[in-house]
Amino acid sequence: MSYTPTIGLEIHAELKTKSKMFCGCKNDPHEGAPNSHICPVCMAHPGTLPVPNEQAIEMVLMFGQAVGATIAEYSEFDRKNYFYPDIPKAYQISQYAFPFLTGGQLCGVDLTRVHLEEDTARSQHDKGDESLVDFNRAGVPLMELVTEPVIHDAKTAGQFAKELQLLLRTLGISDANMERGEMRVEANISVSKSVTEFGTKVEVKNLNSFKSVEGAIEYEINRQIELLENGDKIVQETRGWDENKSKTFTQRQKETAKDYRYFPDPDIPKISVGEYMPFSKTILAEKMPDLPNNKRVNYKNLGLTSDTIETVIADRELDTFMSKVVSSGDVNQSVVRLAGNYLTTDVSALVSTKERVLSELKPDHFVELMQMLSENKISSRVAKDLLPDMFGSGKMPSELAKERNLLQLSDAGSLEPLIKEIIAENQTVVEEYKSGKDVAIKFLIGQAMKKTKGAANPILLEELLVKSIIE
Ligand code: ADP
Ligand code: ZN
Ligand code: MG
Q1: Strand, coil or helix: 467
Q2: Which ligand is nearest to the CA of 94?
Q3: Within 251-377, where are the H helices?
């Protein structure tokens, strides 16, 4: 009988508010000199009082709307007590019994809850004999999301994390960059032979890439099965992920909620979400951007392939550009599809090598280029050649193409003189073709394309060349 793996995720995301969760310090944990965005509140000086950040709460409620969670009528902040140098109050302000959100779903995975808390300071242990603490991150708003134990394989866990990142970015509430620690994933993993009863779970931390998330889960599933097969027991513990060795390792025995002695923070007023907050569900709905799933459906109906769609919606700039393209009047499916292809390949290449900036490409110019291509007025080679010159250019592509004589020569009449020329200049190749070497025609087409700088229609060229040679 085989084992069923079970996985539940706990994911923290740093919210992109202007100021920290309970003080007015700048929320900027990744830039600036160490300990430059600090104050007595986030440094835990005695006698200071926390004031909840309204923008952070609004962001969590926005998230709740997006995933169909139940927004609490009543919410409160709790103290989670533990000692560590990066948490000088000796407690973290978090939420326990009354989180802002419960339930909801994201890409088929049921959510348990979402709550708000403050981030800890950042400890550095790699500076010689001393350990250093940077408080710029202390008090940054963190959204913690917990899923139900409903995931059964590593890949689905990775997909969930990716979809969450996309949603956080689409909502504009977190940059959710895993490498920078803006989104941190912890995976709870167990295996069991029984379908009705879970096995003992192990929690894996320090997963700072999607690859680590999937790798650690795979590894842990195999490790646990092996232990059970050898007649050993699983120890409930917290394990770390060693990226170089691709292995998990024991960190500590798992704390339970009791160890933290949670209790309501007496310094923070209770929050009656509906009454106290100065925004309503209608305002939240108005602020809601177009969500990834909706974008997928719309782009699909417009004829984009799913690969193109995923590339476009994962990139805010491309997505904004693409939405301008599709809303620019007379674009048909063929133009949209061409636009999608060019945007995710040639345009992206120019932008990613920093050769060009997307904001310098005018959507209507780009649309016209795609239209000319779709109507065979220019060849794809000409389109690729013109593209770099359209950034920052005041000229429409039709104007540029005309100026440079690049409009596709697509009528037999205007190509006749060229055909004669090519045949006269390449007699040996023509003879080769006549004697049965079919590929020789490609050479002749190439010569004609060169002379017209790629402007001639290659299909028509072939037709005319063959006809003239045979006659
Ligand atoms: P704890 O009290 O140890 O923090 P919770 O019940 O709060 O445990 O769950 C924490 C996370 O672990 C959740 O994401 C949940 O889905 C997941 N989880 C709970 N039990 C299991 C299990 N047996 N196997 C895998 N994941 C689990
Ligand atoms: Zn502060
Ligand atoms: Mg828990």
Answers
A1: helix
A2: 3
A3: 257-260, 273-276, 281-287, 292-301, 306-313, 316-326, 333-342, 348-352, 363-374
The ligand 1 atom nearest the CA atom of 9: 14
Residue 86: what residue type? Answer: D
The number of beta carbons lying within 10 Å of the beta carbon of residue 463 is 13
- The residue behind tokens 């195999």 is 222
- Per-residue pLDDT tens over the stretch 99-138: 999 999 999 999 999 999 999 999 988 888 899 999 999 9
Ligand 1 atom with the smallest distance to the CA of 257 is: 2
Nearest CA to ligand 1 atom 24: 190
Distances (CA, A) of 419 to 197, 402, 412, 451, 467: 78, 22, 10, 11, 10
| Confidence at residue 414, expressed as pLDDT on a 0 to 100 scale | 74
Q: What is the pLDDT averaged over residues 245-256?
A: 87
Q: Which residues line ligand 1 (CB under 6 A)?
A: 6-10, 146-149, 188-190, 198, 201, 257
Q: What is the pLDDT of residues 210-235, one digit of tens each?
A: 999 999 999 999 999 999 999 999 99
- Between CA 471 and CA 4 the distance in angstroms is 73
Alpha carbon distances (Å) from 200 to 52, 183, 415: 37, 26, 77
Mean pLDDT confidence for 284-306: 92
Interval between CA 203 and ligand 1 midpoint (Å): 8
Q: Where are the domains of the chain?
A: 4-281, 290-403, 412-470
Assigned CATH topology for domain 412-470: Arc Repressor Mutant, subunit A (1.10.10)
